[in-house]
Write a structure and sequence with these properties.
Length: 354
């Protein structure tokens, strides 16, 4: 072998909004302390569920833990399909499937989950500048529409849903389960957990420990709602979605608030760096409340993403998503990583302009 060949450095991952700084060291300690009989026993679900209920400040019975929030999104679609198949209206209406409503541009998993559960999908297109299309959503409700996926703040735009919109929609369609995906709520500081969830039994909050807490590889998520809203979910859910590693890691991650606070503070600073970069280059961007920024680099978006990968920096081409022509999405997490990503982007843009 040629001894001048160096092992390629691992790529800088700014494409999936993970915590690129890693999890809390306390998580690794917790994983190391797992014993052989811990591994050979089914995990203590009551204990970890109670801890997560305390963490989110909700009563007993309000949390259902999932193998990543992705599983929670799946379960919501399955529960909707099951309820519809048992419903007389399904028979009398012929063999029409129930509908899942998705407000675009959206996280891809909603459509994947709907498809897996045999639901048809209705897409609601964005308004100019991705203003939340509340009237169009309200018009789309029907007896067939059994689940609506919302994301606050949204992925890939980073924009929040305006105050009052979720409450208005929940009140307008009590028969539709509204899943509010709060994967980035640690960064935005806003949540439906609290009075909104208490008032609306058709609302389910989705949370993940993959982003701000840095547990992406361990797969830990939660659905949070009134026990009546979780009952249909529990009917389609497997009994043990979290393994012992995820359980121990989650206890440790929730206990280390400082690690999360630092991630949130770094993200705020990184967003500022990316926004300044966009202003210097005249790129249109959307003010994000999450740990990423969507911005428009123009018709060469796909090429920019490819050239960045060649420099060891992964970013996300979002240009084929509704309303996102020419747009890329870049994770805004650890400040040093953002700086490295932007330096590479500066080079790539210079090379394209030569
Ligand atoms: C990352 C992400 C998730 C996935 O969370 P996991 O816990 O890793 O499955 C869910 N929803 C949105 C909007 C995300 O960006």
């Amino acid at each position: 072998m040629d001894n001048t060949t160096r092992a390629a450095e691992p790529a800088l991952r700014l494409h999936l909004n993970e915590h690129t700084g890693g999890c809390s060291p306390a998580v690794i300690e917790a994983l190391r302390s797992i014993t052989p009989t811990d591994v050979s026993s089914y995990p203590d679900y009551a204990g970890i569920t109670a801890s997560v209920e305390r963490y989110f400040g909700v009563d007993q019975g309000w949390v259902h833990l999932t193998n990543g929030l992705d599983e929670g999104l799946h379960l919501a679609a399955q529960a909707a399909a099951l309820a519809w198949s048992r419903d007389d209206r399904a028979g009398s209406g012929g063999s029409r499937a129930a509908l899942a409503m998705v407000v675009t541009p959206a996280f891809e998993m909603y459509e994947a989950s709907a498809a897996a559960a045999g639901l048809d999908v209705v897409r609601i297109d964005p308004e100019p500048e991705f203003r939340f299309p509340i009237e169009a959503v309200a018009r789309t409700f029907s007896t067939r529409a059994r689940v609506l996926y919302l994301t606050d703040p949204n992925n890939p735009t980073g924009l929040g849903i305006p105050d009052g919109a979720i409450a208005a929609l929940a009140a307008a369609a009590p028969e539709t389960t509204i899943v509010v995906d709060e994967a980035y709520a640690d960064f935005s500081g806003r949540t439906v957990i609290g009075p909104l969830l208490e008032r609306h039994r058709n609302l389910i909050a989705g949370r993940t420990f993959a982003k701000a807490h840095g547990l992406a590889a361990l797969r830990v998520g939660a659905l949070i709602a009134h026990p009546d809203a979780l009952a249909p979910i529990r009917r389609v859910a497997p009994p043990f979605s979290l393994n012992i590693g995820a359980v121990r890691a989650l206890e440790a991650a929730m206990a280390d608030r400082r690690h999360v606070d630092q991630a949130v503070a770094q993200s705020r600073e990184s967003r500022r760096l990316i926004e300044d970069f966009c202003r210097r280059h005249g790129f249109h961007f959307w003010p994000s409340e999450a740990n990423f920024v969507l911005f428009r680099v123009g018709h060469r978006a796909a090429e920019v993403v490819r050239l960045m990968a060649g420099r060891g920096v992964l970013i996300r081409d979002r240009s084929t998503q509704p309303g996102c022509a020419g747009c890329i999405r870049v994770t805004a997490g650890v400040v040093a990583h953002t700086a490295r990503g932007l330096a590479a982007l500066e080079d790539v843009l210079a090379s394209l302009n030569r």
